[in-house]
UniProtKB/TrEMBL annotation:
SUPFAM superfamilies: ARM repeat (SSF48371), Translation proteins SH3-like domain (SSF50104). This is Uncharacterized protein. GO terms for cellular component: ribonucleoprotein complex; ribosome. The keyword Ribonucleoprotein applies. GO terms for biological process: translation. InterPro entries: ARM-like, ARM-type_fold, Exostosin_GT47, Nucleotide_exch_fac_Fes1, Ribosomal_eL21, Ribosomal_eL21_CS, Ribosomal_eL21_sf, Translation_prot_SH3-like_sf. Belongs to the eukaryotic ribosomal protein eL21 family. GO terms for molecular function: structural constituent of ribosome. Pfam families: Exostosin_GT47, Fes1, Ribosomal_L21e. The keyword Ribosomal protein applies.
Amino acid sequence: MPAGHGLRSRTRDLFSRPFRKKGYIPLTTYLRNYKIGEYVDIKVNGAVHKGMPHKFYHGRTGRVWNVTKRAIGVEVNKQVGNRIIRKRIHVRVEHVLPSRCQEEFQLRKIRNDELKAEAKARGEKISTKRQPEGPKPGFMVEGATMETVTPIPYDVVNDLKGVALFLSNGLRLGDSNKNSSGGLIWSTAKEKTDLVRKPDSDVDPAAGVVEDRDDIDGGFSSLDGMLRWAIGNSDPEKLKETAQDVQRMSSDERQMEIKELMEKLKTPSDAQLMQIAMDDLNNSSLTLEDRQRALHELLILVEPIDNANDLNNLGGLAVVIRELDHPEPEIRKLSACVIGKASQNNPTIQRQVLEFGTLRKLMKMVISSCVEEAIKALYAISALTRNNFPGQHLFYAEAGDLMLQSVVDLMASSDLDLQEKALLAVKSLLHLKTTEALVFQDFCGLDMLLDRMRQQLRDLMQDEFRKDYAVDVESLRTEVELIYHRKLGKAFAGDGQIHSSGISAMSAAKMRPKPPLLSGPTAFCRSLLLLFFFLSFYIFLLASPIRSGSILQKTAAPFITPLRLEIPRGGAPNGSSITAPRFVYPDAHNSSSAFGYSNIFLHHPNPYNPKLGNYFSEHMFKLSLLRSSLLTLNTQEAHLFFMPFSINSLRNDPRVRNASSISTFVTEYTERISREFRFWNASLGADHFYVHCHSVGREAASKHSALHNNAIQVTCSSSYFQRLYIAHKDVGLPQVWPRPPMEALTPPTERHRLVFFTGRTKNSWIRQEVMSIWGNDTAMGIFSGRSSYPYEEGFKRSRYCLHIKGYEVNTAKISDAIHYGCIPVIISNYYDLPFANILNWSRFSVIVSHREIKSLKKILLAIPRETYMTMYENLSQVRRHFVWHQIPAGYDSFHMTAYQLWLRRGVHRLQK
């Protein structure tokens, strides 16, 4: 007989706790009150083995039938065959949570009772039945004009201006010339402008000579460009004399000079970087932009605790705290961020910052008219007082309870976004399981404020464009009001304030006088609650989505350009300046591979075969790499290593075919190269990458942990939802079909159809929903299967083309739309778009959520003509990035993908 399995078998992943939730169990878990008849959710906590229910009950909802000292009796329905059995089990409190299954019903019941009471007072009869929700109104997303961001040149290159670099035949380097800022770290704003825009004084502008970008002083895009500039700007006679001097030098002298040069090129330590930033902040003549850059540098450096302590030892805390009095809000905001980052979970820094009297300055910043400044000040206050008893007492001594009232007053703001966040913060505080009446005295004015909010939201519901948002906020307001009245009733019931005379809890709250300031344990308890409030308020302000038209959105400066990174002529994406050579394992060149699967590793003999279809990009990348200048046979120069197996070829090989066999094949191949070559073990695969466009490829690395955790996956199925796809590590590959060379686009005046889409609907419920809603709309050409006119004509004659998720998030339709000049409308959640860290997709496409399908037509018709023309022009510029060539060309799909790999090249192999 086979071996049996225990009750806890195969539950490692099922009972695992979420990311960053694996610490101690929160105290509120043991402070919750459960009553018989309430609904609870059974969610097993893998850290507590006692009282752990069977895995069958994990995720079930039941009713409480018994409450003991440490456990809850839960009645759960269990289906056995055609019967439903009510199982009664006891579960420890760590494994249950209050269920919210009846929350919507209770809120709706209370709301209906209020509506009926109001209608009865008016002498009317109303219906409180739920009505189907109509489509939401569309809104415009407009951005700034197109501009190009120039990256800052490498500072090492700036320090080597005027240095003559020579070949390895013995030429000697001259003295380096530091930049005018005197540091090895960053250039000032004026120096960057001079480096990029200042032409060479020897070039006559009237002659019409255009310099190459590498010839500009300091604007080098690679070390090769710097070498050419150094040789071209050197005197041949002096070079000859220097070469003769070097030839007369001994080997020891040469090694000593090389060692001195390497010392000059050595990267400064974090302490030196912080000292340079402090010197810049102490410089009163420093420009505002350079002062911001110095604070940004400190913000990055002080995150490790050791660096924060070094900043204190260097006297940098006093320098940063002094910037809190700067007249510019941006400087004060960055200074508060640095203080908060350095103080969190660091008692030494917390104590030192509090001794400087920083808390009083930060509390003044909270009431600033600048919303972002107030947010950062709240963050710094929470970091200073978290797990810091002296800081909490000082916070209360500085009238922290009064600040709480000012934060609650944000609910009276005319901005719906701020109202929503303040309501969420109050709700999080009210959910704390405590019945101390003094806590709720701080909210004595909350009932009146909620009443005013109700009237204000009713007025906003008359506005067609703000109605839906106002309804959402009103629902949240009603929920907060319900919780507040219930909690306040409990508090006064515990203090004996509810009498038989019929005075309600609300009335008692208004009549009760406010107690004086307290000290000792009571003040400490209230301080803790205030801290919880500030932490939740800060988290909601930063983490919750920003609604259109909110104050935070209006005050935020635009930081996204049509091209997120500059792609200069002669720059990185065209391949000539990418300093990350690739080494391809020999299987890609050897037709008699010892592994016995040469067809899997060799490039496809005819990648333009129409039968390849969706897998064209997978084969073209390998062919382009083998024919590009990025290939190297010198393994010491290689920054990345290409594993040349083809998932599409494996899928068509009769010896492999299925997904399990493919993952076994890839695992064996990885183990083979780790045995025969030393490169894999040097980095555990972190500098290796493989390419695939087949959906089976997403599980190819599932049986080799180092392969799917460390190696770079270049895939067309770049979905956040995929189990083995890691966005910051892996690279999205555009899925492109073989298409004819690019032609002139059809002008917008000849595009008479609004929308075009054709494709199968059986493999996607989203496509089925789009078809059911818009399939019969004559203005929108949406077809299930083949269209009534040629496929290409649909793209050429339409203004917008839909990219809808099918079996995978990716399809070739998005590349086809770009190829024919049709604005892509992307309806595919969790899709990590190709080249997303290079191209700004919002400037040449429309991204729609699944929930907005009913409003699709309204959204597209609301886009102004000027915005559409701007998107059309942007689309014509990015077309060349979605094209493959047999011989790689500048800015094509190969070089754009290679550029993304180049951005992930910073891996150092271990030395034996």
